[in-house]
Design a protein that fits this description.
Arc Repressor Mutant, subunit A; 2 domains; 13 helices; Jelly Rolls; alpha+beta; 5-stranded antiparallel beta sheet
């Protein structure tokens, strides 16, 4: 696994997998709210949206029962991303004023179950682990300024800043040495990331192992084993899932017929496409489109 954020796979001429997946599920930033220990007591939140917590000052305890019975201590500079719907924040030192930001996101719930399966319910990025993290601090300060000034366009500015913060957090998490193999860790590898970019750019193409291995600059055997080790599944199983996810997006976002969607995603017949689609999503393409 690579150990530098700057080496996150760059895929010229192709899409990159992370950008494509976030686009597929229409991941967009929501709003940001500011919390201080002096303005409220301990709080509990019940939300349907993912939350990004940015600790500006002080110390807090984050509790999420469906993640761990033990609280997570957060200090200045720490960032936490959670997909859990219920969590609480407590202040161990109520006499010392502390401040944290909570930003939210929206995304397509149906597709996200397949594409975000690799993410844990809670991701913590420690300041002590990655240093000062100037980029993250600068972005969060920009968001704060937009909240305070409330100038025209501030809503869209905050949304875009939240998207930038999310991408940065996911990049950092993908470089963790002990995470389970998944498409995001594969995207962080220069060779496999380049291949994933090619597959995401042309999912309908009848890729061969030889072509993909050549793109990666590896032998076929080394490429196949490396792909599985990083992504967690063989290249063609990943490609099949990608095609069907693309098809689901086309069914939602366009008026193309089911046969046309099947052709667009590399299927020779509508029947074969419909069988594969139902196996992945639990419903026929036509029923999916109506939902």
């Amino acid at each position: 696994m690579i150990n530098s954020i700057n080496k996150f796979a760059h895929t010229p001429n192709f899409k990159d997998a992370l950008s494509d997946v976030l686009g597929l599920i229409r991941f967009t930033g929501g709003y940001i709210e500011v919390h201080t220990s002096g303005s409220m007591s301990d709080i509990s939140l019940n939300t349907s949206e993912p939350s990004l917590l940015i600790i500006k000052s002080g110390t807090f305890y984050f509790r999420c029962e469906d993640y761990s019975p033990d609280p997570i201590e957060l200090s200045e500079g720490d960032i936490l991303l959670t997909f859990s719907s219920e969590f609480s924040i407590s202040y161990p030192h109520k006499l010392i004023e502390s401040e944290w930001l909570r930003g939210t996101f929206q995304y397509d719930q149906r597709l996200s179950k397949r594409l975000l399966y690799c993410l844990p319910k809670v991701i913590v990025i420690r300041r002590v682990t990655y240093g000062v993290m100037d980029w993250l601090e600068t972005a969060s300060q920009f968001a704060l300024n937009e909240i305070e000034t409330n100038e025209p366009g501030s809503t869209i500015m905050i949304s875009r800043i939240m998207e930038l913060l999310l991408i940065r957090v996911l990049r950092l998490w993908a470089l963790e040495p002990n995470i389970k193999a998944n498409w995001l860790s594969g995207a962080a590898d220069p060779a496999i990331g380049y291949v994933l970019g090619a597959m995401h750019s042309k999912p309908e193409k009848a890729w061969t192992v030889c072509e993909l291995a050549n793109l990666a600059g590896l032998s076929r055997s080394v490429f196949a084993s490396r792909f599985v080790a990083l992504v967690g599944e063989p290249p063609f199983r990943y490609l099949i899932g990608l095609r069907l996810d693309k098809a689901a997006e086309l069914l939602q976002q366009t008026k193309r017929t089911i046969f046309q969607v099947a052709e667009d995603t590399g299927y020779a017949s509508e029947a074969a496409f419909s069988r594969a689609f139902k196996q992945r999503f639990g419903s026929s393409p036509s029923y999916w489109r109506q939902q």
